Amino acid sequence: MSPAGCSHVNGYKVDNWKQNLRVIYQCFVWSGTAETRRRKAKSCICHMCGAHLNRLHSCLYCVFFGCFTKKHIHEHAKNKRHNLAIDLLYGGIYCFVCQDYIYDKDMEQIAKEEQRKAWKLQGIGEKYTTWEPTKRELELLRHNPKRRKITTNCTIGLRGLINLGNTCFMNCIVQALTHTPLLRDFFLSDRHKCEMQSNSCLVCEMSQLFQEFYSGHRSPHIPFRLLHLVWTHARHLAGYEQQDAHEFLIAALDVLHRHCKGDMIRDDNGKKANNPNHCNCIIDQIFTGGLQSDVTCQVCHGVSTTIDPFWDISLDLPGSSTPFWALSPGGDGSTVNGESHLSGSTTLTDCLRRFTRPEHLGSSAKIKCGGCHSYQESTKQLTMKKLPIVACFHLKRFEHSAKLRRKITTYVSFPLELDMTPFMASSKESRMNGQYQQSVDVLNNDNK
């Protein structure tokens, strides 16, 4: 899809195209009543293989349903030269000439209107309202020194994002990134010097996005160029299906990191840093930390240490088969990391304590010890060697078994200020040397 949109849509926009498109959405995509849903279930089958599944698409030019997975809709488009089809599950429109899903403002407006009508008939309610800050939120923002100035007509930096199909996973990450103070200051000060030849730089688009967010405009922003570039550089995220927000964050940081090569800090002579093993681009400066892994031999107690960079920490949650309340000290309402810890509740500190506790690897995972020169059982412990300026925590919300993939609905509480000192490699070394009490106060402020 071109950032400017699909040029083949104009061939469809003749005569009563709006009414025809509305009928397709009403009957085959957004079914508002039980009767229309039954009609859709009976009529929406592939005209070639008779299947209901396999990503069914409807031709926009004639009455034809075809499988996208088995390419039956592709055969129809080639034979009839009907270039556009609509995804009956997500409502996205596909162009067989561009070989991609497309965005068109007029079509998107019709899709949203028909979706609203269907939701209203189902009693779901309005979902595409424009967000406006409440009086209480405005008051809090005025007293927050990290916010930019607020006028009577607008709140600088607060702006809605239009959902382009099922892109809420992207929008929530974009909102988080645009309100990261250091990242905001970098992009608003025009620090990015692009060295790419084409208009495919994600950093340039993010820079433009920051300008849009902090321009003072109140109307929602449409991030179609950003979506296009994400599809271009992270092919596994392409399409109108719902994706995982955590996966999008890591993909976005990776592409931004690769495109930030021209923005590395320079030395006194204006030359870039020449160390291939160290990147000091803005993404690494803000989001990269160091994770230390210590593997200890159970025979000679020799320790093998490796340090790997990380952008996020994935934390286990207690599911139906993995409770870990016992990890909380006391269990009787003690306070940990500023959290009032009640028995039976889960906190972010609990998750971090579980993440950094020693793990016995067992007899099936023996390692070759450098001291014993033989395979021995060992324990492994993860700690933080270096903290990032902005720490990202990913909660593993799904548990898997042989027969089941279940979502974990456990609530997790977290403090407004998190002290990472107990989870640092330096704290572990201090405890081993009996110096923890003396060093903890010195480290505390740096690790919050």
UniProtKB/TrEMBL annotation:
<feature type="domain" description="USP">
    <location>
        <begin position="159"/>
        <end position="448"/>
    </location>
</feature>
<dbReference type="InterPro" id="IPR013083">
    <property type="entry name" value="Znf_RING/FYVE/PHD"/>
</dbReference>
<keyword id="KW-0862">Zinc</keyword>
<dbReference type="InterPro" id="IPR001607">
    <property type="entry name" value="Znf_UBP"/>
</dbReference>
<keyword id="KW-0788">Thiol protease</keyword>
<dbReference type="InterPro" id="IPR001394">
    <property type="entry name" value="Peptidase_C19_UCH"/>
</dbReference>
<keyword id="KW-0479">Metal-binding</keyword>
<dbReference type="Pfam" id="PF02148">
    <property type="entry name" value="zf-UBP"/>
</dbReference>
<dbReference type="InterPro" id="IPR018200">
    <property type="entry name" value="USP_CS"/>
</dbReference>
<keyword id="KW-0863">Zinc-finger</keyword>
<dbReference type="GO" id="GO:0016787">
    <property type="term" value="F:hydrolase activity"/>
</dbReference>
<keyword id="KW-0645">Protease</keyword>
<keyword id="KW-0833">Ubl conjugation pathway</keyword>
<dbReference type="InterPro" id="IPR038765">
    <property type="entry name" value="Papain-like_cys_pep_sf"/>
</dbReference>
<keyword id="KW-0539">Nucleus</keyword>
<keyword id="KW-0805">Transcription regulation</keyword>
<keyword id="KW-0804">Transcription</keyword>
<keyword id="KW-0378">Hydrolase</keyword>
<feature type="domain" description="UBP-type">
    <location>
        <begin position="4"/>
        <end position="121"/>
    </location>
</feature>
<dbReference type="Pfam" id="PF00443">
    <property type="entry name" value="UCH"/>
</dbReference>
<protein>
    <recommendedName>
        <fullName>ubiquitinyl hydrolase 1</fullName>
        <ecNumber>3.4.19.12</ecNumber>
    </recommendedName>
</protein>
<comment type="similarity">
    <text>Belongs to the peptidase C19 family. UBP8 subfamily.</text>
</comment>
<feature type="compositionally biased region" description="Polar residues">
    <location>
        <begin position="432"/>
        <end position="448"/>
    </location>
</feature>
<dbReference type="InterPro" id="IPR028889">
    <property type="entry name" value="USP"/>
</dbReference>
<dbReference type="InterPro" id="IPR050185">
    <property type="entry name" value="Ub_carboxyl-term_hydrolase"/>
</dbReference>
<feature type="region of interest" description="Disordered">
    <location>
        <begin position="429"/>
        <end position="448"/>
    </location>
</feature>
